[in-house]
C-alpha cells in the first residue's frame, strides 16, 4: 500500500464515530416518548439500549421463585444448532433495525447448559453482528466449562474478553452444595467462587472479563441487599444489578407480596450498601420508572460517583460528553485506536480537554489525595442498577393498546405504555421483523413460544447419573446436563 493509501486508511480508521451508529441513535432518540427525553438520557445519545435473546435455550437446572419463564420452559431441550440459528436470525434483525453496535445479553434459561463450543460459536455470531455479548448464568458451573468456552481447539483464547451476568439470590433452589440457601450471606462463597474462576482465567490465559451480579429482590431479602454489596464489592463484580420481583412468567412460582419491596425501598438499601447517596438522575437508561443507574468507582472501601449531580459543573461535563463523545464507541475499541479518535476530537474541540481536566481535578479532590495515595491511585469502576420489570396483568393490555396505536386514559396503563415505548431492553422477532420489550416477551409472547418450542425440541431422556449433591436437579431438569458439564463435584473450593 502506498503512502497516500496508508494515510487514507489511518484517517478512516481514526474517524471519531461511525455515521451508521450515529444514525441509529438519532432514530432511537426520535422514537422515545417525551417522558424519556431527559437531559441525562443515554438512549439516543450514547447507545441504542440493551438487547436480549429469547426462545433459544429456555431450560434451566435451578428453580427460582419467582421465575420469569413460562411453565413450558423446562420442557424444551437445550440444542446448540437451534441456538446458533435463532441467535443469528435475531442478531440479523437487531443489526438491521438498531444499527451496528449494541450490548446484547445471551439469555434464556441457563447458558452453561449449552455445550461450550456452541456457547462460544453463539458469542462469535453475536460479535459478527456488532453485538457486545454478555452471557446470563446462575453461575453454577465449573472452571473446566469456562476454560473450554474461552479457549479454542488449539488451546489459545478465542476471545479477548468475556462478559457474564451472574444471578445469585436465596430464592434460587438447587445450586450444588447449597440446595436451599438460608440467607444471602450463605451464598457469598459461591459468589466468590464464581468471580475467582475469571481471575484464574485471566491469570492463566490472559482473557479479560466483565462480571455483573444480578439479584432478585422481594420483601424476603430486601434488608440483605446492603450486606451483599459490602461483602462482595471487591470480589470482581463491575456491576450490582437488583430486580424487584414482578408478577410475570410462571405463576406457580409467585410466592410473596412482591410489590411491598418498593423501588424507593430497594434503592435505599442499595445506597446503604454503597455507603452513600446514589443519584439516579445524572444518567437515565430509558424510563426512570424502569431503570435506576448510578455510575461510579470504589477507591478502597468507598464508592464515589463519576459525576456529582449536585454540581452544575459536573452536569456540564455530562452534556459535553453527550455532545462530543456520545457517538464514539468505547466498548470493544482497542485502546490505541480509541486514543487516536479522542485526540482527533480534542483537536477539533479543544475546550473538551479543559472540561475533562477540570472534572479530573474535582473528582480527585472529592476522593482526597490521602485516600488516592493509600490506594495507590487504584480505582474499581462499579455501577449500581435497579431494573423494575412490570407485572403481566398491566403489560398485556398496555401492549395491546400500543399495537392498535391507542393511548390509554387509565393512568396505570398509560404509564405502562410510556415505559414500554422507552424500553431499553429489546428482543427481536425475525419472523415478522419486529422488536418487543422484554416485559412483553415474558408477559405475552413466551407462553406460546415455549409451547411451540416444546414440540420442536422435545426433551430426550438421557439421564445417566443422578447428582448426589443436587437431588433436586433431576426434578427440575429431566434431561441430564451436557457431557461437558460434570454431573457432580465438590463445592465451593476451586483449585487455584
Ligand atoms: S423490559 Fe420492561 S421494565 Fe425493562 S426497560 Fe423494558 S419496559 Fe421497562
TrEMBL record:
Q: Where is this region: Disordered?
A: 461-496
Renumbered to this chain, the Low complexity biased-composition regions fall at: 467-488
Q: Where are the transmembrane segments?
A: none
Report what the protein is called.
Answer: Radical SAM domain-containing protein
This chain's source organism reads Streptomyces halobius
Amino acid at each position: 500500500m502506498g503512502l497516500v493509501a496508508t494515510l487514507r486508511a489511518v484517517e478512516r480508521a481514526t474517524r471519531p464515530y461511525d455515521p451508521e451508529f450515529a444514525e441509529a441513535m438519532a432514530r432511537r432518540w426520535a422514537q422515545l416518548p417525551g417522558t424519556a427525553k431527559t437531559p441525562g438520557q443515554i438512549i439516543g445519545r450514547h447507545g441504542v439500549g440493551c438487547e436480549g435473546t429469547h426462545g433459544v435455550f429456555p431450560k434451566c437446572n435451578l428453580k427460582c421463585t419467582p421465575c420469569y419463564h413460562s411453565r413450558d420452559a423446562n420442557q424444551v431441550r437445550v440444542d446448540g444448532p437451534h441456538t446458533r440459528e435463532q441467535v443469528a436470525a435475531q442478531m440479523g434483525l437487531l443489526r438491521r433495525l438498531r444499527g451496528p453496535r449494541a450490548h446484547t445479553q445471551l439469555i434464556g434459561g441457563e447458558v452453561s447448559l449449552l455445550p461450550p463450543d456452541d456457547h462460544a460459536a453463539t458469542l462469535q455470531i453475536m460479535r459478527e453482528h456488532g453485538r457486545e455479548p454478555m452471557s446470563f448464568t446462575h453461575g453454577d458451573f465449573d472452571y473446566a466449562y469456562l476454560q473450554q468456552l474461552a479457549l479454542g481447539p488449539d488451546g489459545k483464547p478465542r476471545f479477548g474478553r468475556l462478559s457474564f451476568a451472574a444471578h445469585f439470590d436465596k430464592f434460587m433452589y438447587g445450586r450444588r452444595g447449597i440446595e436451599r440457601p438460608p440467607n444471602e450471606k450463605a451464598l457469598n462463597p459461591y459468589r466468590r467462587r464464581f468471580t475467582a474462576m475469571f481471575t484464574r482465567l485471566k491469570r492463566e490465559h490472559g482473557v479479560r472479563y466483565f462480571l455483573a451480579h444480578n439479584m432478585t429482590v422481594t420483601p424476603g431479602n430486601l434488608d440483605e441487599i446492603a450486606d451483599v454489596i459490602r461483602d462482595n464489592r471487591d470480589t470482581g463484580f463491575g456491576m450490582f444489578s437488583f430486580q424487584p420481583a414482578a408478577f410475570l412468567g410462571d405463576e406457580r412460582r409467585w410466592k410473596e407480596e412482591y410489590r411491598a419491596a418498593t423501588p424507593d425501598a430497594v434503592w435505599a438499601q442499595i445506597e446503604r450498601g454503597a455507603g452513600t447517596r446514589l443519584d439516579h438522575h445524572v444518567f437515565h437508561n430509558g424510563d426512570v420508572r424502569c431503570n435506576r443507574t448510578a455510575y461510579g468507582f470504589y477507591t478502597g472501601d468507598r464508592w464515589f460517583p463519576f459525576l456529582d449531580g449536585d454540581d452544575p459543573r459536573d452536569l456540564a461535563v455530562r452534556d459535553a460528553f453527550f455532545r462530543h463523545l456520545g457517538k464514539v464507541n468505547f466498548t470493544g475499541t482497542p485502546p490505541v485506536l480509541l486514543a487516536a479518535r479522542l485526540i482527533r476530537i480534542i483537536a477539533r474541540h479543544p475546550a473538551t480537554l479543559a472540561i475533562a481536566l477540570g472534572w479530573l481535578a474535582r473528582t480527585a479532590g472529592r476522593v482526597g489525595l490521602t485516600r488516592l495515595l493509600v490506594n495507590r491511585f487504584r480505582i474499581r469502576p462499579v455501577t449500581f442498577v435497579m431494573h423494575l420489570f412490570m407485572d403481566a396483568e398491566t403489560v398485556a393490555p398496555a401492549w395491546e393498546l400500543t399495537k392498535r396505536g391507542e393511548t390509554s386514559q387509565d393512568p396505570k396503563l398509560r404509564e405502562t405504555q410510556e415505559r414500554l415505548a422507552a424500553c431499553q431492553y429489546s428482543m427481536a422477532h425475525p419472523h415478522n421483523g419486529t422488536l418487543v420489550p422484554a416485559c412483553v416477551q415474558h408477559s405475552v409472547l413466551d407462553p406460546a413460544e415455549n409451547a411451540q418450542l416444546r414440540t420442536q425440541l422435545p426433551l430426550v431422556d438421557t439421564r445417566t447419573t443422578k447428582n448426589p449433591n443436587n437431588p433436586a436437579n433431576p426434578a427440575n431438569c429431566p434431561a441430564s446436563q451436557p457431557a461437558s458439564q460434570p454431573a457432580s463435584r465438590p463445592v465451593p473450593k476451586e483449585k487455584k
